[in-house]
Records
---
Amino acid sequence: MKQPNWQRNLYFLWFGNFMTGMGFSMTMPFLSLFVATLGNFTRPQLNLLSGFAFAITFLAKAIVSPYWGKLADQYGRKLMCLRASLGMAFTITACGFVPNVWVLIVLRAIQGCFSGYINNANAIVAASVPIDHSGKALGTLATGNVVGTLLGPLAGGVLAQTFGYRSSFYVTGVMMVIVFVTTLVFVHEDFTPVDKQAMVPTKQIFRELKYPMLIWGLFITTLVIQAANMSITPIISLLIKDLLHHGGQVAMVSGVISSLPGIVTLVESPLLGALSDRIGPEKVLGVGLVAAIICFIPMSMVHNVWQLGVWRTLLGVSDAAMLPAIQTLMTHYVPKSAFGRIFSYNQSFQAMGSVSGPMLGSVVANAVSYQGVFMMTAILETLNLMFLVPAMWSLFKAKRIEQN
């Protein structure tokens, strides 16, 4: 029996998401160490340049994603996946040859400009999957990026330790070439190019959305989830060091604690995605947000790493509930002709969360305490829930009316 086209796409786009997630994260553990080899910098200069080199990729992604989304709706999402994978292959490989930090920063900015594989992969699957399987399919697809992001730092650290920092860039470049080839050969998209004059303007799409406040609420929720997850990034090892009372294997424990939510999300996302197909993604999203708030509050009062580990494990369950639910809601309430633009806007908000989260975390940690970062994220999640509830309530009432 011939396999449905959407299932084959799901398998190969999962692989593409996995390789892209790994490629993005492989150089993260040693980026500041690599920057240190590119010149003689003071400690403040090194911190500033490393932070800038990290953030510039996400900032560029946030700015250009809507433009690529428009082209995706005009020429096809597969073409944008090919553009993203090939562009990243060149820019990441070139990072391995940089003579100074300024060239590295420029290349990482260009890398951000060429990004967009994951959101276009989501759009391809969302446009082709039967609506009653969308939650499980998008939940499964999300695990590809999660697994890649989890394994990337480990693989990058081993390569850097064995062959030097630059080797990770070369290997990542080869990986993105493989993604380009597999996407070109095995991913099929039924798409008819749209003439530029026939394209519905983005402003009109937002005006014609059935539930515009819901879509904007989902954008903001994506930003808050990413900011909450990234807020602890700059200070996680320092917090672990304090909780271990300046003894023990800080680096190893930090790695384990950091990866716990991702590991749980990997396991739970397909299951909770399937649940959203049965009971509705809006219910799963609402419960996920409340669960995240419940997890972050006690994190602000932990006294040892075991307590922190337990609450971060539970946080992974809430992430697994929220991320596929957001994608599924967009699939339900956005016209297919606008998937490229809407999913790209969502990626822009996610990228803004990647930039703002670590910045907020660093500021709060300096002003209050490391644990205060978790209370800050709990407040952010609460404000987000308050913003999203009216839109969810209007959706709930409309569905009740339709059923009656």
---
Amino acid sequence: MSHQPAPEAANETVVAQTKKWILDVVVGCNFCPFAGREVKRGTVAYEVLKTGSAQTVLAAFEAAMKKLDANTEIETMLLILPQGFGRFADYLKLVSGAERTIKKKGYEGVYQVASFHPQYLFAGSSTSDPANYTNRSPYPMLHLLREDSVSKAIASYPDTHKIPQRNIAFAKEKGLAYMQALLAASLGVSE
């Protein structure tokens, strides 16, 4: 008889792994020069969704926007999907659905979604391109951002349009093995 962790414990592990990925990869590699501030301030919310249904995830995505409306102390929210959406093509459909939900619910210009996935693949790149690791995460996730905050951050940071190119150059310079190890290390964390 095998012992299964309680759902709360499993959720805590998923959040701990995601936090390690944010610290080591997103902040550590400076892929997002604005993330460190929010991590230090404790304004990042994490929600683990244990479902493979797009309809359920999109309902939770809508609820997350309402939660951000009601809680201005939360700057950004990550909806983490440890079950389902393992196929990148299915995940991309989910991201499109989230973008449609933003428009349909009247949140265009208020919120935006950023996408992260363990198999993230930039159009035209190969699966072995280290640049894909700028958007690879331990689990599929939808990152909900306040558009006003993004605009303010962009206005206060020089040459934001160069961030993606800088991130790609960093990942390519470090190489595939380094980027793979960095992502894999985040999965070794448990609460």
---
Amino acid sequence: MDKKERVKKIIKIFNQLYKDAQCTLDYENPLQLLISTQLAAQCTDARVNIVAKTLFKKYKNAQDFANADLKELEQDIKPTGFYHNKAKNIKETCRIIIEKFGGQVPDNMDDLLTLPGVGRKTANLILGDVFGIPGIVVDTHAKRLSNRIGLVSSDDPKKIEFELMEIVPKESWSIFCHQLVYHGRAVCKARKPECNKCGIIDYCDYGKEYSK
């Protein structure tokens, strides 16, 4: 069975197990999702959601963030870690959004990548979840699981993204990556995967070794 066939089987199972899989960051508009993804670097989504709840009441739009006092913004986002850099990136991102994009979050990869602190992972998440443009989001779960399953053999997120694009049907790109997150948290955990509970063990290289 080639990788494309395996992915089809895995998607069929994931669509039963995690049919409602979606981004686990809370947001009400594109800017909130963009800022939350910047805050989520080296931080859990759960913690970001707690911080963001207060943050988005205080700063309601790109203008508010662009005009924010840097030291004050740093304190507002401090629990997410790396707050000096994140605050600087958020302020600069919002300034660019106002000056170059009319106050709106860009809807294409090239423009999104011009924003500070925004890489392909964040851009693909924005494109898929906000604008309905399919993208492969390679976060820690997608990286770990795609290697364990045997769909890719690389630690390079960009290489993983393009390899998955070749074998995952385009219409499934966005939800498949969310499903990998759900499966990674519930079953295929970083330290010790619970292969005995895994619904896709028959299509997983690591699982086949486990079941021997």
---
Amino acid sequence: MASTSDIKNGFTFRHSNDIYTVVEFQHVKPGKGAAFVRTKIKSLSTGKVLSETFPSGHKVDEVRVERHKMQFLYKDDMGYHFMNAESYEQAAIGEAFIDNPGMLREGDTVEVLYNTADNTPLTIDLPQYVEMEITYTEPGVKGDTATNTLKPATVETGAEVRVPLFINIGDRIKIDTRTNTYVERAKN
């Protein structure tokens, strides 16, 4: 058991029959009354972010986790197959554990968060930015670049991203995997 004094960003614990990780926290000592900890916690099963307040000294059930670098190999009817970069062990992980599977290419390295008690995967963290090639988009019309208008474009994995009008087929772009949005043209 851990207490609220152990809470920090990335701390993983069991709460309300689910496993949560701390996204943001703040220890508050008001002038009058007892101290407390205000947190934003993310459910590792649903991805929902909640605001929760715990009284100072409150006991929480800590979940011990390990992070493993794994390489994405392929996808089939059993799920997404990954290989541990150190031990070369392979694991099939369901799509529900991946926040944005459309941004995952074969050979990409991801970070998998495992619960050490039963060695089950909790989440898969993709790199924050990935570079992908545009495989299809409508051509931009000359003179339409003065506004911040976006158009749909398909990238090499088949995912759709909204891009500015000046982006064409064959261009490489940088994409934010958390929001699935265009960031910039990739530097060569």
